[in-house]
Amino acid sequence: MNNLVVAKFGGSSLANAEQFRKVKSIVLDDKRRRYVVPSAPGKRCKDDYKITDLFYLCHAHVQHKISFDDVFKIIEERYKEIVKELELSIDIDAHLKEVRKQISQGASADYTASRGEYLNGLILADFLNYDFIDAADIILFDKYGCFDSEATKKAVSSKLGHIEKAVIPGFYGAMPDGNIKTFSRGGSDISGAIVARDTEAGLYENWTDVSGFLMADPRIVDNPKPIERITYNELRELAYMGATVLHEEAIFPAREGGIPINIKNTNAPQDKGTIIMDNLEGEENLGTITGIAGRKDFTVIAIEKAFMNAEIGFGRRILSVLEAYGVSFEHMPSGIDTLSIVIDDSQLDHKLDKILEEIKRQCNPDSIHVIPSMALIATVGRGMAKTVGTSQKIFSALAKNDINIRMIDQGSSEINIIIGVETKDFEKAIQAIYKAF
Ligand code: ASP
User: Fold this and answer.
1) Which EC number(s) are documented for this chain (predicted)?
2) How high is the pLDDT of residue 349?
């Protein structure tokens, strides 16, 4: 590990010339920020377009044999305006022309979408006076389109080893035949984390338009406190429950390399943001929690059968029914004679009646009933495992607010207490728990 910083800037951080200027002053403010990973230009305001969406639209037009001129014109204007306002000498027209040609000749969706980052990277490299390294040369996928970690590691060290300062576009890489392959949407976060891991950076900065994670969703809780430090595990739990700032898959490469991630705000660079790291020893957060997050739209199948505990294979038979219908489950809290299965509604898709029939047929339960419209709320905190009274605080806050708890689940890591409430109580429950801590 060295003192190198890899800085990834999201789409809103590079949406126009003014944002580019902010990015430049941030990058130049710290000499350690040697490798910069940009996204494509994002929205400048609520009703604006994301360049990546427009590129996908171009591709769809070509597929349907419809002219993509109008859409491409909007893309061209965005890039040309940035270049003009920043008074850069890069020949963006030539690059746009080449991209246009490839798209019109039927380039793949991945190639087309990746041009958002590619063009933005060229412009940013020119503006910062950094080298431009095409992600297709260092972020590598295998012939099946799966990310190839080993090949990438080698390519990054051989290509970047001698380059002092570089801009590497996010979101894409290449397969062995040279074809472009993208990560899933929002994937520039992953590219940044991979570059950080493979250059053994001391820090991965992820610059966006919020000052890190908040303890709760600001649409539900007024002015929630920012989370200054969080472990990868805690973040994983919160992210699963809907707290999004960072692409979930970006956590893994950074964690593998033991590299802390700092979520920072391009529009308020003085804010500390959130640091995500593994080793938070001495900061055990005893007596308090790190954050609360939740998701709606779950269905619970509650099954009862006398002496279920003694019946060998009962749980397996139930789960095999789900498996046969291609349904994954989220949680499975159980009692002696009861078992509940919590399933994301999107999984069920008209299959519920058939699943119930099949469970009845195969498992012969005493009763089986369905609780629809459940919401799950996760209260997450690394301090929980060693603190007495966390659950008591949660439950009494809910009781005081007249909220009925329909389910309780605590994972073995003891950093998370999940409760199920009715959807109508969702917001009220999050507010009550937040207040209690
Ligand atoms: N531009 C891509 C997207 O919109 C990737 C990214 O922004 O991270 O999904």
Assistant:
1) 2.7.2.4
2) 83
